[in-house]
Design goal:
By secondary structure, the chain is of the alpha/beta class. It has two domains: 1-32; 50-255, Alpha-Beta Barrel (TIM Barrel). It is built from ten helices and nine strands. The chain has helices at 2-29, 37-47, 77-86, 97-102, 107-113, 133-151, 167-176, 195-203, 218-233, 241-245, and strands at residues 64-70, 92-95, 117-120, 157-158, 179-181, 185-186, 210-214, 237-239, 254-255. α3 (77-86) links the parallel β1 (64-70) and β2 (92-95). α6 packs parallel to α7 and α8 packs parallel to α9. It is globular and about 45 Å long. The model is unreliable at 1-32 (pLDDT under 50). Pfam families: Polysacc_deac_1 (PF01522). GO terms for molecular function: hydrolase activity, acting on carbon-nitrogen (but not peptide) bonds; metal ion binding. It comes from Nonomuraea cavernae.
């Protein structure tokens, strides 16, 4: 009986080993899946079909401009949201993870709830081109995870701090499903803290442009009523970046204005 019991135990061990080893080898040898960025963009759009909310706007026909605000949310972001709501204007906010984490008012959630677009501007605003790949990934993923937890949406675009990008940054944004949104009109509001100067520069926007501003500066917020009124009189519609393109931008690709190819 002892011999038969030992033989049975050896048989069970052999069958178990034969059943698990090939699977382990197969899993270890399987290469990571490669997803075409355009396919990923379509998947993201299907996953969140109602965000940002679709509006009857056609930027191939209408005069559109995308106002974008970096580095927040900050102490003036709430006032900016009030101004945009009062004029039925939509914008895109490229937020810093550390600012979202420090915000006691839940402004990231308010940005999403009021129909604006929210994008990834890294966690702590370093030049991503100066970082090793694992740190680039951490800057983006940590911010994405926090914003997704607080708002329920996954960001589809990012803006590299200082506009600094290269092939490594592009590859990482592609992996994370984020398009790189740059700009065509810089108001230089970070340098010139005069609301009249900022408004005048924004007033020069042409149809299809992406305008760069920062919602952490009081003078920028003070410039917003004038620039909204002036551009509205010229027939402009204020849209999110996704509305400007009429489609989810392709992950990894750089965009600077409406004429950037994205097909």
């Amino acid at each position: 009986m002892h011999i038969w019991g030992l033989a049975l135990a050896l048989l069970v061990m052999t069958v178990t080993a034969c059943g698990t080893r090939p699977q382990t080898r197969q899993q270890a040898a399987r290469p990571p899946a490669v997803v075409d960025p355009r396919v990923l963009a379509k998947r993201l759009a299907r996953a969140q079909p109602d965000w940002p909310a679709n509006r009857p706007v056609n930027c191939r026909r209408d005069k559109c401009v995308a106002l974008t605000f970096d580095d927040g949310p900050g102490e003036y972001t709430g006032k900016l949201l009030d101004l945009l709501r009062g004029r039925e204007a939509k914008a895109t906010f490229f937020v810093l993870g550390q600012m979202v984490a420090a915000d006691p008012h839940g402004l990231a959630r308010r940005i999403v709830d009021e129909g604006h677009e929210i994008g990834n501007h890294s966690w702590s605003h370093p030049p991503l081109t100066a970082l090793p790949e694992e740190q680039i990934r951490a800057e983006l993923v940590q911010t994405d995870n926090l914003v997704r937890r607080l708002t329920g949406v996954r960001m589809r675009m990012m803006r590299p701090p200082y506009g600094a990008t290269d092939a490594r940054v592009a590859a990482e944004t592609r992996r994370e499903g984020l398009a790189q949104i740059l700009w065509s009109l810089d108001t230089l509001d970070w340098r010139d803290r005069a609301s009249s100067v900022v408004a005048r520069r924004a007033d020069a926007a042409k149809p299809g442009e992406i305008v760069l501003m920062h919602d952490i500066h009081r003078t920028t917020i003070e410039a917003v009523p004038q620039l909204l009124d002036t551009l509205a009189k010229k027939g402009f519609k204020f849209v999110t970046v996704s509305e400007l393109y009429g489609a989810t931008p392709v992950p990894g690709r750089e965009y600077t204005d409406r004429w950037t190819k994205h097909e």
